[in-house]
Amino acid sequence: MAKILTVDDSGSMRAMVAHTLSEMGHEVEEAENGQLGLDAALATQFDLVISDVNMPVMDGITFVTNLRQQANYRFTPILMLTTESGQDKKGAGKEAGATGWIVKPFNPQKLSALVNKVLK
Amino acid sequence: MSESLELEAQEQSFSEWLSFSLGESSYAVDILRVREIRTWERMARIPNSKEFLLGLINLRGAIVPIVDLRKRFGLSARPLDKETVVLIMTVMTNQGEKTMGIMVDKICDVVNLTDDDIKSADKFDLTISDRFVHGITDVRGAMAVLLNIDSVLDTVDF
Amino acid sequence: MSDPMERFKQVFFDESAEALSAIEQHLLDIDLTAIEPEVINDIFRSAHSLKGGSATFGMSRLAEFTHFMETLLDMVRDGQRDFTQEVVDCLFECLDCLRNLVNHYQFEEQVNGELIAIVEKQLQELIDGKQEGKPVEGSGDSNLNNGLVHGKHWEIHFSPDEELLLSGNEPLRYIEELLELGSVNVVCDSSDVPPLNQLNPIHLKMKWLITLDSEEAISEEDLAEVFLWIEDEATLEYRCLDQEAPQLVSSALAETTKSAPDVKVDTVSSDVDNAETSKAKAPAKRTGQSIRVELSKIDSLINLLGELVITQSMLSTFNNMVQFPELRRLQEGLGQLERHTRDLQDGVMQIRMLPIDFCFSRFPRMVRDLCKQLGKKIDVVIEGENTEVDKTVIEELTDPLVHLVRNSIDHGIEMPDEREALGKPRVGTLKLVAYHQVGNIVIEISDDGKGLAVDKIRAKAVERGLIDANAKLAPQACKELIFAAGFSTADAVTDLSGRGVGMDVVKRNIQSLGGQIDLHSEENEGTTFSIKLPLTLSILDGQLIKVMDETYVVPMLAIIESIKVKRVDINKIGEHDISFKWRSQFIPLLNLAETFSLPETKPDSEDSLLVVVVEHDNQQFGLVVNELANHQQVVVKSLEANYIKVDELSGATILGDGSVALILDVGALMSRLKVH
């Protein structure tokens, strides 16, 4: 069982991600933008962070950049949720330090496969 | 729902009825429709309502009207006594299920009836509207009128 | 709704509604001469979330449409396309399509394919329009991946950049993933690993040579897919070992993957800059945390609370010192219980409260559309949009408000030229104001238009047979004729003022909510409608009154005052009390005992009567009662739930002693005045 943080401004997306991951037996915490995500990540050590790109207050790229600068998050897998049109965002996400990305739309099966890819 | 209840009863080939009296006459209602039996309590009179409506009571937070069954059936009034009870009934209306009460002189029995025990009331003048009557039956040698409660408490008449 | 996917869909629908109104608000507020990047970002973000969600929940038409929209917005955001009025107009139309599509998936509303096709075409034209002039970056790369080499045996050179670990990637995972494609033989090249004293553990200095043998033919794309996340962070060479495979293609591909990062770094850093600046500019409007709760759950909570209030007031009636020697302590406890119950009640009622903005927010768009249609120019001013009111009140209020606003635009505010000639600004103003006033919400809709012309109204009322040609009417009474049933009929109502509904219906709707509507209008200056409503429909601020032995509740909203009137001051006709003089005019009297045909239990001997002066529709009348009891909040219960609607009553409630008290409908009582 891993501790996972999911950051997304869309409640429905967050709920789906959280539900899928809890079904897999993980412990999930939710945050609705990068700033709140950062607050949560600093309060708890997560084993995996899944973040949306487009969010108000603090977007996903800034969030990941900031998170990577934390010593305890240097090696933590971080996945970004992108859409197929967001090619350049994938690059930006990588540059910010994301481990990989999950392309929307995705279903629970695809999500669990990708999460298993980064969690041992 | 009333139909399904009745159907279910038919499958078991008997139904249970709660009998009560108004003066000398016996009546009975489908026991599955009786929610509870209460003693008489103070009611809030409803202004300008039909004479047979006694008023409203507070049934655990719900506002429930109580009908004086004597008056509904055109019988003479009778003072309240220790045996006067109110039967809280489930009534099916075209606006859905409602809860209403009927005040009766006293309750008597629970009787088990098979379909064959329930006879047509066609040839008798029971002094009440035919639509109120489901049939008649024999309870300890006396005739009891089985009531169709949805018609007796039809709000169209209120 | 036990299926979690269905639940998430529901959340998505709620979000969509929010996203749509957010886009609409931005479009309405937008100033094309000074566009803030954050506004475009916000609109883009809303469209983007809609797209992501709809695609995830399998709402393909919605996903397709938002994709179009997003493409245009993306171009605007990147400066490839200017944010022109044309774009704004098109986006407004997009909103209509989006609403239709969301409703299609949520409520099975018919898809308006025609409209969508038109709007999609507009979008496409806008997208194509600017693409020729400005350079398009970053597209076309993907074509390079078309190396259609298939084979069962592959050799993979995997040399990660030394920073790979810092992106949370673990090389072994990728090698493990290859196992899913076939059997793998891995040789690790650790020749670059420095001696231990120089070793920096976060730098990855190893390379791998992997041979993969598969049962089935694998394409280069399949392999690239495995390493997709780290294609920019590693040098990867895929060499097909099958005989027929041309070796050139794979090395060419390796070239491109290697050179790709350099190109992208520039665009990336500028992107990050953008993100930084937009973050700095973002206004401090971080919304409060919220959860979504089904209304029925709150309602059952409110019902329970009602019970608690009743229990609490029931307990407070036990004040017999003899029976309860420790009464004082009990009373202290009861006092606390009462305070806490009250706080709890306020708190729970608060949950149902929504800002009136939920209702107001539709008007700017509506006014804009109507103005376009009519050639009028109107500014909408909204004040107090955060004023909170019960959700059910908002729902019931929306239709009447729509009607009033349409009325102001249609009949109130003049055409720009006409206004200019009158010395008014060309642009008219429609003002929507909301504020609280002791337990009520007041909503004012005012315009600076032509106002109501008393003569015209009078003439029309005579024509419609509503008043006699010779009737004497004060100007205000005359203006209020617009509320009379039968005043506004089809020919007076253009298609704008809508649906053949007259002002009488508006008034009736407001009254059925326990509210009142007032009108103030000056010719050539404008008209103001003022609506006063209780904040909630489930709890009522009531005055208990006693008539004979029965207790009734009068809504405080209707009460002006309670006074004693001497018998000699009451005008009688025969046995009936008819009127008395109140504030220098005669007002009718209604004897409740008589109206409700109560059995006389009190001797009629006192020399004065207790009269509660109530008001409905700006008309006052007196209710003769025997006694005033408590003034308290009561939980309104419907009579229809188990009984039927009773004309003079708006419901019932349960008092502290558990007994039922009926709530008077003052308006209905007034209409009974004439019946006698």
TrEMBL record, chain A:
The modification 4-aspartylphosphate is found at residue 52. The keyword Phosphoprotein applies. This is Response regulator. Keywords: Phosphoprotein. Residues 3-119 form the Response regulatory domain. The keyword rRNA processing does not apply.
Automatic annotation (TrEMBL), chain B:
Keywords: Cytoplasm. It is found in: Cytoplasm. The keyword Cytoplasm applies. Its main location: cytoplasm. InterPro entries: CheW, CheW-like_dom_sf, CheW-lke_dom. Residues 14-158 form the CheW-like domain. Gene3D superfamilies: CheA-289, Domain 4, SH3 Domains. The keyword Lipoprotein does not apply. Pfam families: CheW (PF01584). It comes from the Bacteria. This is Chemotaxis protein CheW. It comes from Alteromonas arenosi.
UniProtKB/TrEMBL annotation, chain C:
The lineage of its organism: Bacteria, Pseudomonadati, Pseudomonadota, Gammaproteobacteria, Alteromonadales. It comes from Alteromonas arenosi. Keywords: ATP-binding, Chemotaxis, Kinase, Nucleotide-binding, Phosphoprotein, Transferase, Two-component regulatory system. It catalyses: ATP + protein L-histidine = ADP + protein N-phospho-L-histidine. Residues 286-537 form the Histidine kinase domain. Involved in the transmission of sensory signals from the chemoreceptors to the flagellar motors. CheA is autophosphorylated; it can transfer its phosphate group to either CheB or CheY. Residues 1-105 form the HPt domain. Its EC number is 2.7.13.3. It is an enzyme of class 2 (transferase). One of its GO terms (molecular function) is protein histidine kinase activity. Residues 539-675 form the CheW-like domain. Pfam families: CheW (PF01584), H-kinase_dim (PF02895), HATPase_c (PF02518), Hpt (PF01627). This is Chemotaxis protein CheA. The modification Phosphohistidine is found at residue 48.
